[in-house]
């Protein structure tokens, strides 16, 4: 594929996050440096069987071929579903960015595993696919995560800075952006997000997650347990740093009620996010929150109280918090096509700005 320099194209991004709830699909028009237009987006839930299979593969270095095939087909269905709902983009679309589903992330051991066959997906959907975004960074000594910061930076053009974007997904991360362009973005994983909380809620109630903060708002956090959880040296370590979904567990709260356990996990997430503010170059005027956690009032209220900084969903600046991660991999796919860096020393700790992503041709 050849692309004229700086010519914007339509790209589709696919992101399956550590919450294991489904596949986010989003379309954007970009040249890999600026965002010219935002297209439609959607979330296609995983089937119950596929979710169970993914959970059963967490932590595995070698993934069963059947699961790879099933996840790849699920991404093909997600792509075709969005395009069937918005057929006017079928002819506009040039490339697809496939993140795949992370089942293991251990950059200290030089390992990161995202499940999804880019070569097969390209054949199934009939579009070129960029995939395997993290391996090159990890191989070069980086953390391989987070990778969305350059997209956050592109979206933040025109905003008064500094800007801090907080993603509360399965795990949480923060991106600090100097919108004047004087400094590169700084980013790192801060701690747990919704993964522990979702798993706790599913194990103790009939709800799939802490819907509207109903369970956590009815409980009281166990401050002694939170202090013990926060004693993990990870939280004081300077960035760059990243986490695996399995980095933490909720064994310490096993004896608590469903409500108190949920409240404790929410407090743990917010304490770790607040701690991260001491590790960024300067405090922002507000925290812009994306990811599923922004829908949990208990989470947002607790974070605002602990951080003493206004906390607002990214929708307040016109972004779509449900689509940003998928949009980011559409953006990174175009950067990969242009051999532009997708990670920086300040975002993953890699020694030099690093390109990434392999290209699978549909032809």
Find the CATH topology of the largest domain: Nucleotidyltransferase, domain 5
Assign the CATH architecture of the largest domain. 2-Layer Sandwich
What structural class do helix, strand and pairing data support? alpha/beta
Order of helices and strands: EEEHHEEHEHHEEEHHHEHEHHE
> What best-fitting shape do the alpha-carbon axes yield?
globular
Write the layout of secondary structure elements.
Elements: E1 9-16, E2 22-30, E3 35-45, H1 48-57, H2 65-85, E4 93-106, E5 111-115, H3 118-125, E6 128-131, H4 135-139, H5 149-155, E7 163-168, E8 171-177, E9 186-192, H6 195-204, H7 223-230, H8 258-276, E10 287-290, H9 297-307, E11 311-313, H10 324-337, H11 345-348, E12 358-360
Parallel strand pairs: 1-4, 4-6, 7-10, 10-11
Antiparallel strand pairs: 1-2, 2-3, 4-5, 6-12, 7-8, 8-9
Helix pairs in contact: 2-3, 5-10, 6-8, 7-8, 8-9
Kindly describe this structure.
The protein is α/β, with parallel strands linked by helices and 363 residues long. The chain has two domains: 9-146 and 321-360, ATPase, nucleotide binding domain (Nucleotidyltransferase, domain 5); 159-317, 2-Layer Sandwich (Nucleotidyltransferase, domain 5), CATH 3.30.420. It is built from eleven helices and twelve strands. The strands form two sheets. Strands 1, 2, 3, 4, 5, 6 and 12 form a seven-stranded mixed β-sheet that branches. The longest helix is centred in the N-terminal third of the chain and has 21 residues, at 65-85.
Give a brief outline of the structure:
The chain is α/β, with parallel strands linked by helices and 363 residues long. Helices cover 32% and strands 22% of the residues. It folds into two domains: 9-146 and 321-360, ATPase, nucleotide binding domain (Nucleotidyltransferase, domain 5, 2-Layer Sandwich); 159-317, 2-Layer Sandwich (Nucleotidyltransferase, domain 5), CATH 3.30.420.40.
């Amino acid at each position: 594929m050849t692309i004229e320099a700086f010519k914007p194209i339509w790209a589709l991004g696919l992101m399956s996050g550590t919450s294991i709830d489904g596949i986010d699909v989003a379309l954007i028009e970009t040249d890999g440096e600026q965002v010219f237009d935002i297209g439609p987006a959607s979330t296609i839930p995983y089937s119950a069987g596929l979710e169970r299979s993914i959970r059963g593969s967490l932590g595995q270095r070698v993934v069963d071929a059947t699961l790879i095939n099933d996840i790849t087909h699920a991404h093909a269905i997600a792509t075709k579903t969005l395009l069937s709902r918005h057929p006017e983009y079928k002819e506009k679309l040039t490339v697809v960015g496939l993140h795949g589903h992370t089942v293991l992330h251990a950059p200290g051991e030089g390992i990161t595993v995202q499940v999804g066959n880019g070569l097969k997906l390209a054949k199934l959907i009939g579009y070129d696919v960029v995939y395997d975004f993290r391996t090159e960074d990890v191989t070069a000594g980086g953390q391989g995560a987070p990778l969305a910061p350059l997209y956050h930076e592109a979206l933040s053009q025109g905003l008064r800075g500094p800007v801090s974007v907080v993603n509360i997904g399965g795990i949480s991360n923060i991106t600090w952006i100097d919108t004047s362009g004087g400094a590169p973005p700084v980013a790192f994983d801060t701690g747990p997000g919704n993964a522990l909380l979702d798993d706790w809620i599913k194990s103790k109630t009939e709800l799939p997650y802490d819907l509207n903060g109903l369970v956590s708002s009815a409980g009281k956090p166990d401050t002694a347990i939170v202090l013990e959880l926060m004693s993990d040296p990870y939280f004081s370590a300077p960035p760059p740093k990243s986490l695996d979904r399995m980095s933490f567990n909720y064994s310490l709260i096993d004896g608590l009620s469903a409500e108190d356990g949920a409240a404790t996990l929410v407090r743990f997430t917010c304490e770790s996010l607040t701690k991260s503010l001491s590790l960024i170059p300067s405090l922002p005027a507000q925290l812009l929150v994306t990811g599923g956690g922004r829908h949990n009032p208990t989470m947002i209220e607790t974070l605002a109280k602990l951080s003493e900084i206004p906390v607002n969903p990214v929708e307040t600046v016109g972004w779509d918090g449900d689509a940003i991660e998928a949009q980011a991999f559409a953006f990174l796919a175009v950067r990969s096509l242009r051999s532009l860096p997708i990670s920086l020393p300040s975002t993953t700790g890699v020694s030099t700005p690093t390109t990434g992503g392999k290209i699978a041709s549909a032809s």
